[in-house]
Amino acid sequence: MIQSLQDTTTLHNGVKMPWVGLGVFKVEEGPELINAVKTAIKHGYRSIDTAAIYKNEEGVGQGIREGIKEASISREDLFVTSKVWNSDQGYESTLAAFETSLNKLGLDYLDLYLIHWAVEGKYKETWKALERIYKAGKVRAIGVSNFQIHHLQDLMQDAEIKPMVNQVEYHPRLTQKELQAFCKEQEIQLEAWSPLMQGQLLDNPTLQKIADKYDKSIAQVILRWDLQNGVVTIPKSTKEHRIIENANIFDFELTKEDMEKINSLHDNHRVGPDPDNVDF
Q1: Residue 191 near residue 81, CB atoms below 8 Å
Q2: Residue 113 bears catalytic tag
Q3: In whole angstroms, what is the distance from residue 77 CA to residue 65 CA?
Q4: What family is it from (predicted)?
Q5: For residue 170, is it left (φ>0), alpha (ψ between -120 and 50) or beta?
Q6: Would you call 117 helix, strand, or coil by DSSP?
Q7: Separation of alpha carbons 267 and 280, rounded Å
Q8: H or E stretch including 83?
């Protein structure tokens, strides 16, 4: 059983990745961002997820440097993720984009680097670049984001290294069961972005009822559901009380019945783009 923020899942290459992290999507550069990262580290988070397109890697880097100093931990205690954006995909341009991300973050290496979306005709070249970065020891694990089963099958036909992670939109209204089963079979760790459906689930009556039963918030119930489903989760928040609340999910366990009730909310509803229609 997962018992704390420091608990990890082991990726297929042996690297350990925390089950829970802080997401920083849509958090702009500035003091709020730096504080969010520092606050998360202070309260025991060991995983931080950003991306080139968020345009906040510099602030994340600063938050990491200040956070590890204040918490008296080392860089090695953290798991830092970034992603190559669509317009940078391709072999040479991905190599350059990775260096740019490292420089902005002010880090010597990344723990995980992902292809942000499956850009048709480009993601295989991009993956070759990720394999090269990985072999050079500049990143501890490589993976993809928003890849459907057919994207993964296509990628793996020519890949030397299998993706270690697939980060996708995942929440009670989009349970991605077939994709999860495929990833499990292939030893690819599924990770949830937008686990709280950008806040749209926080007034759901079914979830409220379950939350009341455990004396927890809806957010805590959803994040607990992620973990019990074997899915890594990275809720985004900049407010200290929420960052603490989102981490307070290790002292209760959802029953099988409640898990099924949450699963039954699935209606294939996305808040993000359709991965099969990437035109951005």
Answers
A1: no
A2: no
A3: 12
A4: Belongs to the aldo/keto reductase family.
A5: beta
A6: coil
A7: 25
A8: strand 79-84
Residue 116 annotated in ligand binding: yes
DSSP letter, residue 76:
G
Dist. CA 270–CA 137, nearest whole Å? 36
Domain residue ranges in the chain: 8-263
CATH topology for 8-263? Answer: TIM Barrel (3.20.20)
Give residue 128's pLDDT.
98
235-271: pLDDT as tens digits: 999 999 999 999 999 999 999 999 999 999 999 999 9
| Residue type present at position 180 | Q
What distance in Å separates the CA atoms of residue 122 and residue 116, rounded to the nearest whole number?
A: 12
DSSP letters spanning 159-223? -SS--SEEEEE-BTTB--HHHHHHHHHTTPEEEEESTTGGGTTTT-HHHHHHHHHHT--HHHHHH
Distances from the Cα of 118 to the Cα of 80, 84, 215, 231, 232, angstroms: 21, 11, 40, 21, 20
Burial class, 14, CB count within 10 angstroms (exposed 0-12 / middle 13-18 / buried 19+)? exposed
Identify whether the C-beta of residue 276 lies closer than 8 Å to the C-beta of residue 169.
no
Alpha-helix residue ranges (DSSP H) falling in the chain: 31-42, 57-71, 91-105, 123-135, 149-158, 177-185, 205-214, 218-228, 240-247, 256-263
User: Which regions of the chain are under pLDDT 50?
Assistant: none
Give how far the C-alpha of residue 83 lies from the chain's centroid of Cα atoms, to the nearest Å. Answer: 10
CB-count burial class (<10 Å; 0-12, 13-18, 19+) for 95: buried
Q: Decide: residue 27, CB within 10 A, 0-12 exposed, 13-18 middle, 19+ buried.
A: buried
* C-alpha dist (Å) from residue 46 to 14, 37, 49, 190, 248: 17, 10, 10, 18, 14
As a whole number of Å, the CA-based R_g of the chain is: 18
pLDDT at position 101: 98
Choosing from 45, 54, 123, 170, the catalytic residue is 54
